[in-house]
Amino acid sequence: MNETILIVDDEPTQRHLLTAMIARSGHHVENAGDGSEAVARIDDPEKPAIACVILDMQMPGMNGLDVLQAVRPRHPHLPVIILTAHSGVSRVVEAMKAGASDFIVKPASAERLRTAIDSALSHVSMTGELPHIKPSQKDFPGFENMVGESPPFLDAIRLGRKAAAVSIPVLIEGPSGVGKEIFARAIHQASNRKAKPFITVNCGAIPENLVESILFGHEKGAFTGASDRHIGKFQEASGGTLFLDEVGELPLDVQVKLLRVLQENEVDPIGAARPVPVDIRLISATNRHMAALVEDGHVREDLFYRLNVFPLTIPALQDRAGDIPLLARHFVGQIARAENLEEKPLSADAWRCFHKPHGRAISANYKMPCFWRW
């Protein structure tokens, strides 16, 4: 994978070292000496798109946080990896909340840098979508707007409606891309908590040393770098629903604290004198078999039973092939409306691609060579 990586750092020596490390991985590297130059390069439509940004936190003028806040609205899916000379958690948490994908404490090793870039590019590849047709949070469809008539999919919707009627924990399993978050939002919207917050946490995207602080919060002065009090995601979601995506990626020590939250309905922020009561509806999701993670020792068995009170599996596209025509028409119409184009039917060649590529049933990850005829 040869992508364009942008290094943003005001120190020429640091830019030179990072360029050499990244170039050895086969990527094309560009440099920016300050925040303003970086924003202009990221926004430049005449040059190749930037696939990932390595961004220094401390720079004169426009610092790393300023750059993040400037580019994130226009480039919501662009991975940004923060470089910092200090591991102060409160500053890093601020960057993560502003949209950073990961952070690296200087001096960065070649292996840590390569792993961070590969992870960021892989995440974008798996979750890539057409941003201009992605609905806003308030427009996410409920069960009544979901597209599909195949028996496995209708069974999942039926179970989702049942889950919405109660407040017990739900565990959603299914391959990447099947719509686990959409189902979680639909459950929330069909519940008596729909007027309250719906908070999403991608457990696999949080640096391990920040997981506890981001989920449960911390008090000012709780540890070196904790210059401000931070409210965790459980408190943010209190009264509503907390969605933990890829819950099986949580470290084992954090799983212990999560188990306590589910048992006691209270969280222990780092450095707090006493627990804080929370009232949340927990929905968890994983693209792996949770029982297998328990057997492998990656997930605590007692936590599994607490999360798996109401199990729900969303079928992969290859298991609901009868829904392909409905989904194809739906997305063609959605794209046409977004681009202000006349909606036209799919071509015969496109239908053949959808139904039997290379003589096999369609794969969940199959990339279409043709879509519709304009």
Automatic annotation (TrEMBL):
Keyword Cell membrane: no
Protein name: DNA-binding transcriptional regulator NtrC
Protein origin, superkingdom: Bacteria
Domain Response regulatory span(s) in chain numbering: 4-121
Family annotation (SUPFAM superfamilies): CheY-like, P-loop containing nucleoside triphosphate hydrolases
Functional summary from the UniProt entry: Member of the two-component regulatory system NtrB/NtrC, which controls expression of the nitrogen-regulated (ntr) genes in response to nitrogen limitation. Phosphorylated NtrC binds directly to DNA and stimulates the formation of open promoter-sigma54-RNA polymerase complexes.
UniProt keyword annotation of Hydrolase present: no
Native source organism of the sequence: Iodidimonas nitroreducens
CDD domains attached to this UniProt entry: AAA, REC
One GO term of the biological process aspect: regulation of DNA-templated transcription
Gene3D superfamilies: 1.10.8.60, 3.40.50.2300, P-loop containing nucleotide triphosphate hydrolases (3.40.50.300)
Record-level Gene Ontology MF annotations: ATP binding; DNA binding
Entry keyword set: Activator, ATP-binding, DNA-binding, Nitrogen fixation, Nucleotide-binding, Phosphoprotein, Two-component regulatory system
Pfam families per record: Response_reg, Sigma54_activat
Sigma-54 factor interaction domain sequence ranges: 146-350
Modified residue annotations for 4-aspartylphosphate: D56
